Amino acid sequence: MAVGEPFAFCGRIVEAYYTNAEQDSVSILWTDGEKNRDYHLKVDEEDDQFKALLDEFSYESIDECTLRKNELGRQWWRDAFNDYAQTMELSFETPEERQADLSLIFDFDPEIPEQKEALFKLKLQMFEQDIVKNSKSKVQKTTIRKASTPIEAIVAYNKFIKK
User: What is the pLDDT of residue 1?
Assistant: First the structure.
């Protein structure tokens, strides 16, 4: 079978995916060499066009493309929603997420890279505060810098506040 025979998409398929939850319709993305084109057809194993698609693209490949396309769409919406929430300064933390933040204080484990990173970010945020930034006390700043747990860092930061 030559490229483009017997149907224009033959030998040129980029991807194919289901277009609905019933999985009775497929979209075929194919290229003519200059631009991508889209072709829709019904899932019908008796149809010659659908048979030509299956000659090149298996059901498993259609499933994989559908999953990938749907996940990309979901991720786009999550990103757009998060961008909007940040722009509007909205917070949608669940009680579990808020509790997880407290685990850094009560269950700190320096062997867990994410917790070490969180301690580092905590210290950075402390150093960004005007009360610390404008302080001349190198000893107190060093105490924050050398803190090995979040509680130690908070105690050191508290000394700036109590002045």
Answer: 64
